[in-house]
Amino acid sequence: MNPIEILEQEHRDIERELLELETVEEDEAINYPNLIHVFKRLHDMWNKHEEKEEKIFRIMKKEKIIVPMGEMLFEHKELRRHYKEMKAAIDSGSMEKIKMAFEKHLNVIIKKIRENINKEDEVLYTIAMQEFTPEELKEMWKSGV
Known about the structure:
By secondary structure, the protein is an all-alpha fold. About 85% of the residues lie in helices and about 0% in strands. The chain has one domain.
């Protein structure tokens, strides 16, 4: 698999976690252990995914390919604030705070991640696949650009 295919697969994996979070949110009683587990797994997956994307951003920048990287990086940064707030609510153990955080932060996280994924799939990855062959992408990825 080339790096773009890996990132696209990660998008599908992240989407599964988002669906699981929506299921937790929809339940009358909050399954607290599942919420903690899924939220942490999503957070870890997203952080690792961001690192790989930023590597692709650097490759494209080095090759002087213009993509809306600043906007995408800003969106990643904006998500971190909502993650922190959601994590604080979960850590509080207060069901009231968690339910409030679902509305104020979890729904934003889910919406923003989906928007970000769609933008990356439609713009960033399309441009990368147009500009580089899968072999070039693999080689650049290995070189640690």
